[in-house]
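Much of what follows relies on a compact textual record of a protein's fold. A complete example follows; check for yourself that the lines match position by position.
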Amino acid sequence: MNKRLVAIALLIILVAGLVWHFHSKNLMGKKAVHAMPPVTVSTAVAKLDQFSPEIHVVGSLQAIKGVTVASQMSGNITRIGFRSGQKVSEGKLLVQVDDSTELAQLHSDEAKLDLTRVQYRRSKALYVRHAVARSDLDIAKANLRSAKAAVESDYSVLNKLAVRAPFTGKAGIRQVSLGQYVTPGTAIVSLQEWNPLHLEFTVPQSDMSKVHDGQKVDFKVESFPNKVFQGKITALDSQIEATTRNLMVEAILSNSDYALRPGMFGNVTLYLKHGGSVLMVPNTAISYNTYGDYVYLVEKDKKSGQLIAHQQSVKVGEERSGQVVILSGLKPGQIVVSAGEIKLHNGSTIVVNNSIQP
C-alpha cells in the first residue's frame, strides 16, 4: 500500500514538473515575441484615380501589298533592271527573259497582218461592185481577225518575258542572276509596300463587344522600345476561330519613316471606352497567394499606440504602370504597406520610413 502511494506521489510530482516546464517555455516565447523589434516598412495610400480599360495582345505586321515576283515563262535572263533593297515604281522592268524568238515571230505575224488587211480591203471593194461572192469577203475578214489575234498573242508572250513591278514598293534580295535559266514559278524578288501596313491580332470572344471599327491602337516592338506606332482598326473577322475562340482583328498602321517591316510582331494596346474612377495601390503592396491576394493595412494599436500591420484580403483587377486596380477589400484613404511586407505577419509592429520607395 505504501509503495502504491509512493508511486502515485512520484507520478503527481512528474506531471506537475512537466506542466511547469511547458508553461515557463510559453511565457519565455511570448516575451521573446513581444521583445522583437518593429519592422521598418514603406507605405502608400489607396487612392481614387481615372482609369481607361485597355486590352493588351500580341500582333504581327503584314504588307497591304506584298508578293514574291516570279517568272511566268522559261528562258535565260538577258537583263536585270533593279538592285536588291531598291524602291521600285509600278511598271519598272525587273528582269528581261530572252525574247529573241518571240520578237522574230512578232515580225512575221505583223507582216501577215498587213497582207490580210490589204486582202480584206480588196475583197470588200470587189464585193461592193458584186465582183466576188459574199463567202470570199467572209474568208478575208476571218483571215484578218486571225492575223490580229496572232499579233496580240505575240505581244502577250513578250509582256510575260519582261517581268515588271506590279506596284510601287520595296524590293527585297534578288534571287536570280544574269544568264540564269528560269522556268515558270522561279522566284525573282520579294516586293512589299511598307506604308501603310496591316496590323493583325486576335482578342478573346469575351471582349468582342468592346472592339469596333475606327478604334485607336498602339503598337510597340523591341527594336524601338521608346517609340509608339499608332493606328486604327479597319476590319473585324466575320467569324470566331473555332479552336481558340478568338476574333481576328485588322488595323492599319502608319509607317511613313519605313521603320517597320512586314512580318514583325510586337505588343498591341487597344484602348476601350473611359472607365471612370477606380481605387488603386502600388503593385508592390499586393501579396499573391493561392488562397487569395492580400495587403497589409497600417493601423494604430489602441493600447500601446504603436503601428501594427493587419492582413487584409483584396480582390485585384488590371495592373498598369506599377499600379493595381482594387476591386474590393479597401477604401480610399487607407494606408497599406508598399515595401518590406515580406518580413511581416498579421499583427507585426512596424515603423514607417517613406524616404525609400520601391
Notes: The chain has four domains: 1-34, 36-50+276-352, 56-63+193-271, 71-182.
